[in-house]
Amino acid sequence: MTSQTPQRTSRPLRVLAAMSGGVDSAVAAARAAEAGHDVTGVHLALSANPQSFRTGARGCCTIEDSRDARRAADVIGIPFYVWDLAERFREDVVEDFVAEYEAGRTPNPCLRCNEKIKFAALLDKALALGFDAVCTGHYAQVIVNEDGTRELHRASDMAKDQSYVLGVLDDRQLAHAMFPLGDTVTTKDEIRAEAERRGLAVAKKPDSHDICFIADGDTQGFLASRLGKAEGDIVDESGEVVGTHEGAYGFTIGQRKGLRIGTPAPDGKPRYVLDISPVNNTVTVGPAASLDVTALTAVKPRWCGAAPSGPGAYTAQLRAHGDETPVTAELVDGELRVSFAEAVRGVAPGQAIVLYDGTRVVGSATIASTTRAATAALA
Amino acid sequence: MAYLDHAATTPMLPEAIAAMTAQLAVTGNASSLHAAGRRARRTVEEARETLAEALGARPSEVVFTSGGTEADNLAVKGLYWARRDADPARVRVLASPVEHHAVLDAVDWLGEHEGATVEYLPVDAHGRVHPDALRAAVARDPGSVALATVMWANNEIGTLQPVRELADVCAEFDVPLHADAVQAFGQVPVDFGTSGLAAMTVSGHKIGGPYGIGALLLGRAHSPVPVLHGGGQERHVRSGTLDVPAVAAFAVAGRLAAERRERFARDVGALRDELVAAVRAAVPEAILGGDPDPGGRLPANAHFTFPGCEGDSLLLLLDAQGIECSTGSACTAGVAQPSHVLLATGTDPDLARGTLRFSLGHTSTQADVDAVAAAIGPAVARARSAGLS
Questions:
Q1: From 3.40.640.10, 1.10.3470.10, 3.50.50.60, 3.20.20.70, which CATH number describes the B14-259 domain?
Q2: Active-site residue numbers of A?
Q3: Interchain pair A45, B336: CB under 8 A
Q4: Per-residue pLDDT reduced to its tens digit, B56-93
Q5: Where in the numbering of this chain does the Aminotransferase class V domain appear (chain B) (predicted)?
Q6: Inter-chain CB proximity B317 and A130 less than 8 Å
């Protein structure tokens, strides 16, 4: 039994548990209730036209998910409601997602949802209604310092850590966040076993992957239906046309598959997406080495605590489930300037860079532009 | 605990529980010819007679169903099919826009799948259909009307319809009128025989009977096409082995609902008036839904709109304090939609999100009203600060 008190606090809190219908959020809510908090479950209806059933591991927010969440709440013995945040979700997450791709960037909608929905729209409503905290099934830890300040840390189990998608949370959001699964050193199987032991039927439910609002997993198709087809050229680094595409928005920097370039590269090596230019609707491809990035600039920084002053040495994570890499970062005129100790590959504007000091999340920012090793060498 | 959601379901009466449990141990299919079957049949027919008497109907006019929803579907679809089969020109279905979804969705289904032309009748700010409006709609082309359907009393805002006058209009044109009387039965006088209705829906669990049993009161001149085909029970209109214990208990509840109606209306009506006064005192800007004249609404219904509040928020806050009520609107995937009833009465959609329905019943007490009086002010203040998401 590794279940521990979700938050070391002397008084029971009124907690609103966001319950997706999955196993993690159900166990999180159960742990919060077991720890003596006054927990109310809420399922967020995020789609205006929910599908009836889940298909495999894809999507969420179906009527079946809502029902699974309700059943879990019944078993835990907590009140349960469904809140309709579909309009806010559409505006802040889905439209943002489409606009970012349209602009040639690669957004992370889960991160945006945490920033704008779970720890903004939901949290604000929860606080107004008299709740003290919002609880989710994320794997991350909130540590309360002696002076009452809070720090966000990676989960005890690095393999399951989700602090990256929570890196956008600021002080205030963190002050009301509860992650009961964060200090678990268990495998997913053990979480499932705990769910089973607690009588939660979601114990055997498959994990959800992919993007919840694209039920069939076809991101390209979704974008095409939203943005229409816009044929353009695929060019190599010299500017020579090597193929065509049906919409520059459908590509991500570092992408190799799905380019459908007829003629092979002169050196016979695989080619990757190097750049996406929405303005002239071209996609530039080239060898892997051209993807190497030595520095980047990121905007809209958010800090889990005080903003650092002067340059500092951190580790950085550049995508969900990505590796850590050592960096030097400095805040200059509101922008984060980051240089990498060693070149990294496949950095896509639009994605978040999250800075860590050890296991502590320092803050995050949205990648705006990168400096390529090749370019730097030329310069 | 203050249970103020009797319009959703009301506790079973002890007499109905006794009747039901007594029958649960008895074997017998009411369609069987042997002694056990005859015994069951007798129980059913006695129940039919009891219910008929309670509703001013003849026993042969009582068709048992699985509940209000089925009775509504049978009336709307069955009468439509029968009338259209007799004359293909009859495709118009006239309905009030404040119907329960059991009628509304059945009517819409006819429009989408059976070639019906659905026309929603205008209602006033209290959700009431005026006989002249019905007359105008029918008179536009009387020969093309399949049926009209207008509920006796609204489940959300409690407004009573002028059923007799509406039925008179229909009678002039020989058009059958159906009324969903699920909420009206036991609260206002409901007499099928003098109503002029072709068909009328009642339900067991809204009057202290069991779930899963209801009836369509069906004039003898009307033979709706069945929705359920099978063994030919219930005038060949509704097949299926009868649920004898439920039928017996429903009849007991129906008899008591009729017997106790006047006292219920007086006592529960007085509690309701107190609740309305208490809410208005605590939240002066609260808007009472439906007809403010007590004579024009159900005695047990109090419906409010709280400007700037989300009904869901209020429900959560009151639920946490043991006060159980409803937002009054239907859910889609568990998500509250602005009530079609309020929208039909011309309420602004944003305003329509901030509703609560308190519905009282035979177990309601002064303590229930006091609990609401104490909780509603702070709950509204808090819900307002949470705003409309």
A1: 3.40.640.10
A2: 113, 212
A3: no
A4: 999 999 999 999 999 999 999 999 999 999 999 999 99
A5: 3-372
A6: yes
